[in-house]
Every structure is written in C-alpha cells, then in structure tokens.
Amino acid sequence: MLLDLYITHYNEPWEVGEKNFQMLSLQRLAEWDEIRVTLVHDGTESFPDEYFKDYPFKVNQITIPHGGIAHARNWCIEHSEATWIKWNDFDDTFANLYSVHSIMNVLRNDLFDLLWFDLLCDDHGKLHLRTQRNPVFVHDKVFRRQFLLDHNIRFNEELTWCEDSAFLALVEMEIDHERIGKIKVDSPIYLYIARDGSLCNRPEIEFQNLQSFFKRHCYVADEFLKRGLTDQYNTMCVRVMADSYYTLCKHPGIKEDKSEHEARVWAWYETHKEPFKKCTPENFDMVMEAVNRECWKGGEITKQEFIDWIEKHERG
Questions:
Q1: Top-level CATH class of 3-194?
Q2: What pLDDT is recorded for position 203?
Q3: Model's pTM, two decimal places?
Q4: Residues 84, 2: contact at Cβ < 8 Å?
Q5: Which residues, 6 or more positions from 289, have their beta carbon under 8 angstroms from its beta carbon?
Q6: Euclidean distance between CA atoms 211 and 153, whole angstroms
C-alpha cells in the first residue's frame, strides 16, 4: 500500500466532518486500491457505516482509548502498513477535486522522505494561501513512514497544544534537506479551517495555550541535546526564555494569575542558564527576530529589555 490517509476525530458531530468525506468521495483519478482511509476515533464512538456506503473507497473506523491528538497520531505511525502517511483534521477538507491524485502522482518517487504543498487557510472566513513550508502544521505534508521509524520521531503526548510544531521540529533535526520535495500544482491541495469554538480556537484558554507553548519549547530544547545538536540546543534555551518573557511581561490579554507559571519558568532557567549563555550573538538576534515576528500582541520586544529581565532575576 502506498498511502495511509488518517483522519482523527474527537467529540465532534458528524456535520462538522461531513464535507471532509464528501470532498474525499468526489476525488478524481484517485488510486483507491493504493490508499487506505482510516477514521481514528480518539475515545469516541464510531459513526454509522451507512454514512460511507456510497463512497468509492472503504472507510475503516477505529476507536482507541482517549489520549489526545498526539496519542492518536502515534497510533497511526505504529499501525500504518503504507509507505507514506498523511493526516487530515476532521473539520478540514481537500481543496480541489484532484488533490489526492496530485499527492499520489509523486509518492512512488524514492528521492524524498517528506513532501509538502501550499496550504490554503480559512482563518475565520478570510482565505489566505501559505506558500512557504509551514513549521506549525502537518496538514500540508506527507511523511515517509520508514523515515519516522528510523529516527524515532513521534508526537509528544504530554502536549495538548503545539504538538504538530514539536513533531516537525524533530523532523527538521533529522531530515536530509535534499530529501524534502514540494508538490507543485496549480490549485491548493488542502484547506485548513480555523473554526470558532474548535478545541484550539477558544480565547478563554489562551494562557493555557501559551503555557503549552513553553512546554513545547522545553521539549524541543531537550531533544536537541539528546540528539547531539549543541548549537541548536543553546539557541532553543534562549527561545524558551524569550517566549516566556513575552507571556509573563508583554502579552496584553492575560488576566489569570501568572505566579505559578513564572516559578516554573525560572526553575527551568536555573537548570539551563549555562547553555542559554553559550548561545552565539547571531543566533540570539535570530531568536529575537522570530519572537517579534510571531508574538506580536504586546508590541516589539527589544533585546536589551529581555536581557535586563534576565539580569534582574540573576541579581535576585
């Protein structure tokens, strides 16, 4: 089998994902004999099989114990029998009638371990096209399963947010960039939908998400160290603290008590201050540019104010 297409589902009604399967059923020139479509229910009950009875392919429904999206995707890696793996979100959809054909058309090429394509995003009703390889989402990518197995790349099941970007950070650590290919087509292949009320788009959990971002960065830093990538490890230690400064001191919308998280941040710093201080000036500046590009709600963070914050803590 060439492709395992996994769609993960947790606690959403059929109406949310129906368009996903309808578009999948309309795909033209799709080699369904080389594709297995699996709907992985994360602790929730399967849908009636009659929902899929008129489709040109079989939908395999599997219910696994609830463990979160990272656990569900790791289950996919372990149980896949295909050369390639792709994940679709339940509430997203392919963007055109030849999306599957466009992907399948290049999967027999042995030159690549990762293939990616432009990502069409519906951001609460506003469409925009991401034409650069995205470090945050797995939806615009297809992964060679053997590459993931060979390099022990899995999703971190302790993360409830940022699990995609942490997974992709591991991919970036291990992949030969000459084995990354782009699927170039005239029309977008995948539509990512940011839905109001979805599990990761609720304003009331923004501080919780930012704390998950901290956990993600700490995890990636430790993975750099485990994999012997010292320069990247030192740089990531700076990124952990720079983002923490943004969360604790600059983000304008957080009303919750930050003291517990602040204690956690400084405890982490005490065990990582040496690699923090070994980060090169060039990489330090690169981190500041990234933080200001991505963490824009609180205004620009200057290098000096960040250093002053660290030194103030050092002085006690």
A1: alpha beta
A2: 54
A3: 0.91
A4: yes
A5: none
A6: 23
